[in-house]
Amino acid sequence: MKIWIDADAAPREVKELVFKSSKRLNLEVTLVANQSIWVPPSDGRINSVTVRDGANVADQYIVEHSSAGDVVITADIPLAAQLVEKNVFVLDPRGQVYEDRNIGSRLASRDWLDIARGAGMEISGPRPYSQRDRTEFASSLDRILTKAVKLRDRSDKSDKSDRSDRSDRSDRSDRSDRSDRSDRSDRSDRSD
Predict the structure, then answer these.
(1) Are 15 and 35 within 8 A, CB to CB?
(2) Where do the domains of the chain lie, and which CATH numbers do they carry?
(3) What CA–CA distance (Å, rounded) separates 99 from 83?
(4) Cα separation of 120 and 125, whole Å?
């Protein structure tokens, strides 16, 4: 499990909250941006990836390298839609969690606003980032990380159980093979 930040436009407060969570839960964080991004010292848990300039290059990097169960912070709704399809946990810097049940309507609203702007309508941008946004983000991040960690832990237990089952079957098979060889050897000795 890893946390990804679409870092070109992520507010400083969001990054700081993620860094604190990373330290508390010992989770890896990768910031992806079109320019160099400062990361705090973190014994390798926190790193950044700088991608070449171009539209959506950072987004595509996140899509290609994230996995189901990872957490991504982004305000980019088309990116969020791609990640939700991959079973990645996604939230925006204001605390909005993107899921199957809401990503379609969010994407449709975004597309409609894009068409309206293209047609010359004046539409205001997002309001300035506020203390309330920070609080909502912190709360949502905590909930999402709790879900993601539980999912990871269940998966780890399942993997250990599967390995244990395979090991038990292998041990039984080895004992059975030895027993079969021993039985054949005993029969061979008796027939002599």
Answers:
(1) no
(2) 2-154 (3.40.50)
(3) 9
(4) 14
